[in-house]
Amino acid sequence: MAAMERDGDQLSTRPALETEGLRFLHVTVGSLLATYGWYIVFSCILLYVVFQKLFTRLRALRQRQLDRAAAALEPDIVVKRQEALAAARLKMQDELNAQVEKHKEKLRQLEEEKRRQKIEMWDSMREGKSYKGNTRKPQVTTLCLVKEVEPAPGDLDAEVHRLVDEAKNLVSVAFDTSKMNP
Q1: What DSSP element (H or E) covers 132?
Q2: Is 144 exposed, middle or buried (0-12, 13-18, 19+ CB in 10 A)?
């Protein structure tokens, strides 16, 4: 009790202006904490986390700079790094060259296919066949047995048709035999 009386005496011995200032501060801080206390606590926690993250990043950045400086001073590490870089570039160039060769081969095959189609078209035109058909499929001739009617002695159209059919049969037979005997 004696201690409390001493504290009370000390408060009473202080000037009235100072005690009023302390009460105002106590009321102001108390009302501020009562109103915004949780916001202040969460803000402090958030600031703490942000400073910790920034501090770790800053520490890592400094460490990397020190490692780079140490590596730059060691010529063996620099030489190894340059050799690895040159090897990676060479590997990439080889892969690119292989892709270019594949592309050239595809172009050659396409050109050869076009040339072969032009030759087949030219041959079919020389034989009197239509060149607009699909030249990739092999042409197979089938023999049909049809009873032929003799044309009338003055029918020139029938005679022309008969001669054209005979010529086609001869050409297709010659074409098939040329495929069998290269």
Answers
A1: none
A2: exposed
Q: Which among 10-14, 61-65, 92-96, 172-176 has the top mean pLDDT? A: 92-96
Mean per-residue pLDDT of the chain: 78
Q: Could you give the angle at which helices 16-73 and 75-126 cross, rounded to 10 degrees?
A: 70
CA 85 vs CA 77, 80, 94, 160: distances in Å: 12, 9, 14, 79
Distance between CA atoms of residues 122 and 118, nearest Å: 6
Name the residue type at position 22.
Answer: L
To the question of pTM greater than 0.70 for the whole model, the response is: no
Long-range contacts from 140-149, C-beta under 8 angstroms, 24+ separation: 141/169, 141/172, 141/173, 141/176
Q: For 53, how many CA atoms within 13 A lie in the half-sphere containing its CB?
A: 6
Q: How far apart are CA 178 and CA 182, in angstroms?
A: 7
Residue 141: phi and psi, rounded to 5, are -100, 140
- Written as one string, the DSSP assignment of 74-98 is -HHHHHHHHHHHHHHHHHHHHHHHH
**At 64, which helix (H) or strand (E)?**
helix 16-73
